[in-house]
């Protein structure tokens, strides 16, 4: 039986949502512990162990026919396959960027993402923007252009992360499927390529998960396994929370993650954050402030009505 959606703030749902965003925001610290492992192998282990955990969750919480039910709906299966490829690309780029010293730029990607999602809604869902929303998008574009021409390089990591996650969000919005079951199918799509990569790397001597001369050690192996839990648990928690916490509140809380990533990049990894980069970020933050102001105003108007 599905839980009842609460019209107000549910303390348990709120706490779980905050926990999910905090975990996502501090993920760079975790992946940095696995810097010895090639990025693609980290992603493959992330897919493998996340798939195991989600499959166990679904076996406990739902009927065993959830996977066959999705397969019978060819359109839904195709949509979730594409979603799986998008999130796989997002995970791969994020982990590579973290371990290549680009944590601050990854945070920029997730600051940009809500604004890019607004544009995706206009282009693909025929949603309309008001003047304040268009202003937000314009200011954010100015920030990206500033970073491109004054910081000295196109922020392709940030924009690629935002685009891949934005496309993933669009597909999942249109796909009529439970959040956890959808994640389970996406993991299944990525599972065979992930297993093929891991097996080939182990047999070629480039892997280190199995015991042997090149083994990374049991500590790294445990971190790789637990990385699957860190992938699945926040998503499951998020799916739980959004049914109990108003979306306007969840929308504001989503900025916890890039804020923590940004602070981690600057103060823990000591990545450069000079005047030119700061100006670009200020443009983005102003755009987000306007965007959040508009979202709160509309949420209050909807509640009043």
TrEMBL record:
SUPFAM superfamilies: Multidrug resistance efflux transporter EmrE
Pfam families associated with the record: EamA
Xref: InterPro entries: EamA_dom (IPR000620), EmrE-like (IPR037185), RarD (IPR004626)
Coiled-coil spans in chain: none
Subcellular location: Cell membrane
EamA domain sequence ranges: 12-148, 157-292
Entry membrane topology: Multi-pass membrane protein
Keywords for the protein's UniProt record, in alphabetical order: Cell membrane, Membrane, Transmembrane, Transmembrane helix, Transport
Transmembrane intervals: 12-33, 39-60, 76-96, 108-125, 132-148, 215-240, 252-270, 276-293
Top-rank taxon: Bacteria
Chief subcellular location: membrane
Family classification: Belongs to the EamA transporter family.
Protein name according to UniProt: EamA family transporter RarD
Gene: rarD
């Amino acid at each position: 039986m599905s839980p009842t959606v609460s019209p107000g703030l549910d303390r348990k749902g709120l706490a779980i949502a905050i926990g999910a965003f905090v975990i996502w925001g501090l993920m760079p610290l975790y992946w940095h512990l696995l810097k010895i492992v090639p990025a693609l192998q980290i992603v493959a282990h992330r897919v493998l162990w996340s798939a195991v955990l989600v499959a166990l969750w679904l076996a406990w919480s739902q009927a065993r026919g959830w996977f066959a039910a999705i397969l019978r709906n060819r359109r839904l299966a195709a949509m979730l396959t594409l979603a799986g490829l998008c999130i796989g690309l997002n995970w791969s780029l994020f982990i590579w960027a973290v371990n290549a010293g680009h944590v601050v730029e990854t945070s920029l990607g997730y600051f940009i993402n809500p604004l890019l999602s607004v544009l995706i809604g206009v282009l693909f869902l025929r949603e309309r923007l008001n003047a304040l929303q268009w202003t937000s998008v314009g200011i954010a574009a100015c920030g990206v252009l500033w970073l491109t021409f004054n910081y000295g390089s196109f922020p392709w990591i940030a924009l690629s992360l935002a685009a891949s996650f934005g496309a993933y969000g669009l597909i999942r919005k249109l796909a009529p499927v439970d959040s956890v079951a959808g994640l389970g199918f996406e993991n299944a799509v990525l599972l065979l390529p992930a297993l093929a990569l891991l097996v080939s790397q182990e047999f070629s001597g480039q892997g280190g998960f199995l015991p042997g001369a090149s083994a990374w050690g049991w500590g790294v192996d445990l971190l790789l396994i637990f990385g699957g839990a860190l992938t699945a648990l926040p998503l499951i928690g998020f799916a739980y929370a959004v049914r109990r916490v108003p979306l306007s509140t969840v929308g504001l809380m989503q900025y916890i993650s890039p804020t923590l990533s940004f602070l981690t990049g600057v103060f823990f990894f000591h990545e450069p954050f000079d005047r030119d980069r700061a100006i670009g970020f200020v443009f983005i933050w102003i755009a987000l402030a306007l965007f959040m102001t508009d979202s709160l105003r509309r949420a209050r108007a909807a509640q009043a009505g």
